[in-house]
Amino acid sequence: MSDQAIAEVGQFTRPEDDNEAAADHDWQQYVTFLVDGRSYAIEITKIREIRGWSKPTTLPNAPHAMRGLLNLRGIVVPVFDLHCQFSGIDTEVGDSHVVIIVALVDRLIGILVDAVSDILALEPGDIMLVPKADNGPDQAFLIGLVAKGERMISLLELEGLFDIDA
Fold first, then answer.
1. Which of 92, 113, 118 is nearest to 158 (CA)?
2. Contact (Cβ atoms closer than 8 angstroms) between residue 96 and residue 115
3. Which of 7, 46, 76, 79 is the most buried (most CB within 10 A)?
4. CA angle 102, 105, 111 (to 5 degrees)
5. How far is CA 145 from the centre of its chain?
């Protein structure tokens, strides 16, 4: 995703905004990203900012998946390693890693991901149910699956993942 696209993430519109047909559709937009080679997505309305990785201030006795705190224009934002949240293994951070700042209920959090991929406009019919399986801790926080070409994208419910009441 280009720097311009990252900077303008909150300014996207539905593909049919200029058509009268848009009123007949119930579109939702999702930002897709990669974590350990898997594709995930969250609703675009929850995203406040996408920023390059900068080392946060660590806290003693913080949860293992919490990388530390960022000062975001006077607001203290905890940053969580999503790969670590799912697997217990810390991400080895590189140049392509980014932090997605999301608004959850009444607070902001940052999630460290490998890279942001693209933006999807989805109708409810595009989203498939998650099959019942016990294949990993990330499945408990999936709200649906979307097939796009050769890849399967998992839609995440972040409030439950970070134990926040919606």
1. 113
2. yes
3. 79
4. 25
5. 14
Q: Which two tokens stand for residue 160?
A: 């439950």
Provide the residue type at 14 as one letter: R
Identify whether the C-beta of residue 84 lies closer than 8 Å to the C-beta of residue 66.
no
End-to-end CA distance of the chain: 29
CA atoms of 17 and 127, how far apart (whole Å): 21
Predicted TM-score (pTM) of this structure: 0.79
Record the tokens describing residue 76, joined without a space: 């203290």
Predicted confidence at residue 164, as pLDDT, reads 54
> For the chain, where are the alpha helices, taking DSSP H only?
3-7, 82-87, 158-161
Residue 110's pLDDT is 96
Beta bridge partners of 50: 100
Alpha-carbon span 89 to 77, nearest angstrom: 22
Q: Per-residue b/e over 141-158, b at no fewer than 16 CB within 10 Å? A: bbbbbbeeeeeebbbbeb
CA 141 to mean position of chain CA atoms: 12
Query: What domains are defined for the chain?
Result: 3-161 (2.40.50.180)
Average the pLDDT over 50-64 and give the result.
91
Amino acid at 129: L
